[in-house]
Amino acid sequence: MPATRNAPKIQDRIEKSVEIKAPVSRVWRALTDSREFGEWFRVKFDAPFTVGEPAVGQITWPGYEHATFRAVIQAIDPEQYFAFTWHPYSIDVAVDYTKEMPTLVEFRLEKIPTGTLLSVTESGFSDLPDDRRDEAFARNEGGWTQQMKNIEEYVARNP
């Protein structure tokens, strides 16, 4: 009987969560008001988030100011669910990422006794080109860890 090899498992999903000591309504505003989102995510937007529309802004994160944030808002379900699609780790201005399938970023808010449980899930990495998948996953895995800290600190500073 021939030996079988298991193909390496492709990581497709990043999941992070943070408990924020603030009401759901406050966390929701920090998440879905484009100006506030931009403060903690470090992007300068010129327009509000609108379902079905692109959200485009200048990245202000040190070292990435040359890049533009581009996403399409997929859903805004007040104080519960916010989602967008984007091309993860798309920082090379010479590359046309629009030929790739975007990943889906979903935020869910849940009221808990101490405030709000905010969860983020990014999925769809298995659809990325082989030569970008691992780096995009690794960068966003660390990126979402940092962004969950950023929104928690932002809300604490701006009640």
Number of helices: 3
**First-last Cα distance:** 65 Å
Q: Structural class, please?
A: alpha+beta
Number of strands: 7
| Beta-strand percentage range | 25-35%
Give the full name of the CATH homologous superfamily.
START domain
CATH fold topology: Alpha-D-Glucose-1,6-Bisphosphate, Chain A, domain 4
Coarse shape: globular
Number of domains: 1
Q: Helical residue percent? A: 25-40%
Largest sheet: 7 strands, antiparallel
The CATH class assignment is Alpha Beta
**Spans with pLDDT under 50 lasting ≥5 residues?**
none
Q: Which CATH architecture is right?
A: 2-Layer Sandwich
Mean pLDDT: 94
Order of helices and strands: EHHEEEEEEH
Task: Give a structural overview.
The chain has a 7-stranded antiparallel β-sheet with strand order 1-7-6-5-4-3-2, covered by helices on one side. The protein is globular and about 45 Å long. With 159 residues, it is an alpha+beta fold. It contains 3 helices and 7 strands; from the N terminus they run βααββββββα. α1 (24-32) packs across α2 (34-41). It starts with 12 loop residues before the first strand and ends with a helix. The protein has a single domain (13-157), classed as START domain (Alpha-D-Glucose-1,6-Bisphosphate, Chain A, domain 4, 2-Layer Sandwich), CATH 3.30.530.20. The longest helix has 28 residues, at 130-157. Helix content is 28%, strand content 33%. β2 (43-45) and β3 (54-59) form a beta hairpin.
